[in-house]
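Standup notes
- HV: blocked on the assembly model, inputs below
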Amino acid sequence: MSFALAAICLPLFATVFLALAGSPLLGARINLGLSTAVFALTLGVVSHPGHGLVAADPLGAIFGVLTGFVSLTIGVSNIGFVRCEQAGFSHRQWRVYHALCQMVLGSTLLGLYADNIGLLWAATEGATLACIFGVGLPRTATALEAAWKYFILGGVGIALALFGTMLVYLAAQPALGPGLPALSLIALSAHAGRLDGSLLTLAFVFLLFGYGTKAALVPLHGWLPDAYAEGPAPLTTALSGLTLNVALIAILRFRHLLQANRLEGGAAMPPGPFLLVLGLASILLTAFSLSRRRDSRRFFGFSSIEHSGLAVFAFGVGGATAIFGGLLHMVIHTLIKSALFQALIRAASFRGGAGAGQFGFSHLRGMMAANKYLAWVLGACVFALTGLPPSGLFVSEFIIISQTIQREPLAALPLGLGLALCALAVIRTIGPMVIGPPPKPVTPTKAGVTAHLASLHLILAFGVAFAMPWFLVRALSAIAVALR
Amino acid sequence: MTQIYPIAHLLGGVILLCAFALLSQRRISAMITLYQAEAITLSAAAFWQGLAQGAPSLYLTGLITLGIKAILLPIGLRRIVWRFGLTRANESALPLGLSLVMGVGLIGVAVLVVLPTTVSALSLTREDLAISLSIVLLGLLVMTSRRHALAQVIGFLSLENGLVLAATGMPDMPFVAELTASLLVLLGVLVVGVFLFRMNEHFDSLDLAGLEDIERRGR
């Protein structure tokens, strides 16, 4: 059994046991133990990627390690969340919650490691279903409504992605014939020039809209802000944010098939314009809707749409450098966003609870009065999202913007405008949240381990951006050149 | 085996007809009946493809389709209709005539998109694909033109039938039975979801059960 298979199966099998037994706190501890084991396994995948249906390529392996690490820190801060919210759910609901956390983790890893577009699709479906259950878990009217919205949009997206998957299989028939190789990403990319180009283009449209729904690209983004705002916070914000990467990587890989087919004389259409339009639409829509949000989870949900759109935009610009920038952006954004949500959950628990409706900006004002350290960490996380230096996102956004000016000069102006507006809206929230007057008198509280973890995330994001270790530079550059 | 094409096309055509007829129905129970007819035809199509391609795994797909989609899901849907008295609750956001015209347009789009792009593929696959894309698009149209959650669900179920039809028509595609089964999980959750959602609309909130539980544990 390879490391990759073990990393996928461990959380998925644990789902069954977690759903059946255990008190809330015990479940949270088991969750942490499992996440630690999975993180160790994802490290093993880097040197032993496995073979067959589950074979991690370098891209999958890097994002696997990222997923393992983030799920580990979420596992730690999850214990604090469970302590704080213990009375909010029944024992049964907590069991389901812990099981769903592991299911999202396992499906995400399956989506990253699978070398089969059918399995990739199944992984996306599994992660979506788990998130939908998670969103509906509080059983309040608004939560059920958000879950329903997620279900309808996510279901249609899943259906379209399956249709696209079948079309890719059909497009591979002239080159690879019937059977498993026609579904393997490695084989498809090796024979990209001999795939049926026009069929591949049709497939790409379906895949883009299918996985684009999961990556929350405008106009398919409607589910994300609601889902982020309603479900139990660690599951629906931090953990499910990891599945955005699966969808983005899927889009990147299929884009590469189209591009390679075109370069080798196939009849596929250039994928760039599709991606540029969807990416720009996501950034601009976020730019104009951020300033009107009152709930912080909804607000940062919209910010995820922006960053997802920016990654897709970078893939649309094309060329090795822009794709390098896009991948770097995904890595850093994942680190910062998960740190932010962990700090936010801790901050909300200072104000009485981390359930739905307790994340309003008005509710979270003046964290400085409660704990200075956490307030600064929270402020730093939010500031890091703007992409201004010294945030790690500055580097990736700089690469993407300079490549846009070079390769797609017409798109540079709207991109810059969108990013500036988003940064402005984000930066406006820092002041009140950190140093504003608190809504009611508060007693100082300990920051807890969460704040340290969030700082660790931020330091890692800074390190990856400004002092990237040589092996990561080499690996990411090789991936970007291969997928350009 | 000269009968393969005509019969496969006949079955595909019947499914398409059912999907199209969904657009014109005013009552939910009629939509459920149509969906049931669609699912029965789909399982026949899966059996036929299994016979024609010599692929036993397609028999499994046919059996799953027959057992769950043609029998269990309609029973569940009818129970929901009966439980909440929804026989006439089927508003359409579009006039029926207009949605029929749009349906015809969508079928035209599907044929125009698929047939020229699949010149190299086998002709059976080509036409099957055109039919399934039409069914998928018609399902989307039902989902967007109906206001009621249950009607939207039936649109989604019909859309999913189009996907399974496409999957069975692919030449020797691996994992067809597995993919069908995992789609079914989605459908099952969907129907249960409607049930919960309707409960929620009727009783304002489902919180009560959870609260009682907490109280009991507290004492």
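- HV (later): unblocked. The two ends of chain A are 32 Å apart (CA to CA). Residues 386 and 424 of chain A are 8 Å apart (CA to CA).
- Next: hand off to the docking folks.
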